[in-house]
Specification:
mainly alpha
Length: 79
C-alpha cells in the first residue's frame, strides 16, 4: 500500500471522520435506549459515505490509475 494513495485523501479522511462521529452518536444513544437518536446516528454514518463520494467526484479523492499504471502497481504489490 505504500506505493498507492489508498485512503490518504481529503475525501477519505472527511468521509471516515463523519462516519466515526455517526457511530459514536449511534452508540451513545443505543446505551441510552433512545431509538430516535440511534437512527439519527445511522443517518450521520450514511451521510459520511455520501460526503466522501461527493468529494471524490469533485476531485479530492485518489486519481484513477491508467491501465498500464495499474498493471505496474499490481506487479509491485506482488513482489
Amino acid at each position: 500500500m505504500a506505493g498507492s494513495n489508498h485512503g490518504h485523501t481529503p475525501a477519505a479522511w472527511t468521509g471516515v471522520i463523519i462516519a466515526f462521529i455517526g457511530f459514536c452518536v449511534s452508540g451513545a444513544f443505543m446505551v441510552l435506549a433512545n431509538p430516535i437518536g440511534f437512527w439519527a446516528g445511522i443517518v450521520i454514518v450514511a451521510l459520511g459515505g455520501v460526503v466522501g463520494m461527493a468529494m471524490k467526484a469533485a476531485g479530492m479523492g485518489a486519481p484513477k490509475p491508467a491501465h498500464e499504471d495499474l498493471a505496474k502497481a499490481i506487479a509491485a504489490a506482488k513482489a
